[in-house]
Amino acid sequence: MNEATLLNRDIQVEYGKEMEEVRSVLGQVRSLVHDSVIKLNTSFDGLRQQAERQNELVIGLADDLGHRGEEEVGSADSKGQKSTVNIQGFVQATDGILRTFVDRIVQISQESMRMVYRMDDMVGYMVRVQEHLGKINTMVELTKGLALNARIVAARAGRSGEAFTFVATEIHQLAASSRQVSDQIGKAVEKTNTNVHSVRNVVKDMASKDMGFAMDAKDRVESMMRDIHAINQFRSKTLRQVSSITDEIDTHVTGAIAILHYEEVVTQVLKRIEHKLEVLTKFVHMLDLGTWTDERVPKQKRLAVLRDALSHQQQQFDSVVKNRPVNKLAKQGGAEAVDAFALSQSIRAELRRELVSLQEDSQQIRAAVQGAVGKLSGSFERLRQHSAMQNELVSSLVGGLDRQGGPARTHKAGNITVGEFIAATDSILQSFVEHIVAVSRQSIIMMYNMDDVSDEMLQVEESLGKINAIADLTKVLGLNARIVASREGQASGAFSVVAAEVRRLAIASREVSDLISEVVVEASTHVDSAKDVVREMASKDMSFSMEAKSRVDDMMDQVNENDRLTARMLQQVASMAGEIRDNLSLAVLSLQFEDMVTQITQVVEKKCLVMEKFDRFFDLEGLMNDALPKKERIAKVQRLLQDQQQLLTTVSHKPVNQENMDEGDIELF
Questions:
Q1: Residue 360: which H helix or E strand, with range?
Q2: Which of 394, 431, 401, 432 is nearest to 419 (CA)?
Q3: Rounded CA separation 326/315 (Å)
Q4: pTM of the entire structure?
Q5: Which residues have a Cβ under 8 Å from the Cβ of 241 and sit 6 or more positions away?
Q6: Hey, is 88 helix, strand or coil?
Q7: Which residue from 272, 299, 270, 242 is spatially nearest to 570, judged by alpha carbons?
Q8: How far apart are CA 99 and CA 224, in angstroms?
Q9: pLDDT per residue over 415-437, tens digit each?
Q10: If 0-12 CB within 10 Å is exposed, 13-18 middle and 19+ buried, where does residue 206 land?
């Protein structure tokens, strides 16, 4: 094997080695791009799944807070369980119960005032009874006086007045009995007055306290409801904002995934480069030093063979790359003489053309990657901002829920939590129950007092019966006295007058007694009515308050559980926001491949620049100058090969130490 052939082989080996390094570097580009796209897609899938799950939780919580009523609701937790009462339903139900309590207390106050009016009427009745008793007592005293006068007249009449003495004595005794009964009635009336005034004062005090308590409670309930509605609307609005941000995150993820299609562009360019490299690899095959320096073959024939090889090379390259300018100098054909210098220039121009095409493809890869990374970076920055906003909103809600287990804070408008609302509701409800229990207890006491009044009215009626009986007896005695007086003739005229007056007083006393009886009956009717009202108040108040308290207690237990569930769900949302942040960080980290690709493509471009120096081997004028010794021409090529090897050594190392996006260092060259 001669020296030219060996040198030719060394040149081809060196050229092939550099071409293989270019292929290796481009393969590294493909691996980096592919690996980064896979990692970004994985991150995006995670982002999307977390955003969808997060959105489901947030929308469920927002609906549960803002748009469902008092009916049983289906807010599902992470295990798919159901809660029977949501906060909105609890607030509405509690509002209704508290307002019913307020209305009930107002009603009690109004009923108490009506009781006061009834007691005032009772006082009026007792005054009338006392006035009538005064009349009866006056008539009793007159009757006693008449009986005394009758006894005196009878004593003067001697034997004929004995009958009148007996009658007068009986009349006096009846009058005394009547006065005694009247005094009993007076005492009963005074006792009734005392009980009525006592009941009246209690009821009046209840009415004033009830109304004040009801108005104060009404203000507290309205203020608290305004606050809880405000905080509930805030929570619902915040959750909807979080949901909106989640939708925007999903939109940005979709946009980012669309950007990843740049891999197809890079892949197409890499395939084109590979085809060019295949063609470019054949370029060095035209370098045949043995043939070029063979003085036995005519120079024109050697040049013609080389020209044909160049033409074939151009055709192969143009089949790979369309719309490229063609080297016109290589199109000399036919029997025309081939100029060595022109052919040499054509070969060099073709080599440069093919290498420049590789550089342009490398730049296209870099531009595609940089453009995609720029867009992805902008998308990631927006994702980061939205994630931070989302985390801030959720953290504020979680912080608000975390405060709910503690003691109620000083009341500030619009600054109440669900836990504080529950505590305040329980406090108000407890005060309502205690108040109504106290009212019920007082009502029972009033019932006893009214029973005493009823008993006293019965005693008065019984005593009036006795007075009526005495009046009837007195009237009969008066009649008997007149009969006796008529038998005695003229001497009994005085007795006849006394008897008539006694009878008149008895009749008047009976009439007054009947009036008292009517008043007592009317008063008894009022007492019975008042007792019914008090009894109804006592029974209804207790049953209503106990039932309402039990209902609210049940709802409180359910809402506390629901709120704990809400807190856990919000913690999940917050945790997902953190995972979104982590996935985002991983995705951003994956963008470091841009630096690697940039370094690699720059090396490719440098290699292409160095490989352009291979055109020096195609100095056909020198190599085919038979006037020069062949050994001298071969030596010149050897020196060129050594220079080329030194140039290629400067860019022969890898710019990065990894071919994927796993953890590693970027080595700058």
A1: helix 340-402
A2: 401
A3: 9
A4: 0.55
A5: 393
A6: helix
A7: 242
A8: 12
A9: 566 677 777 777 777 777 777 77
A10: buried
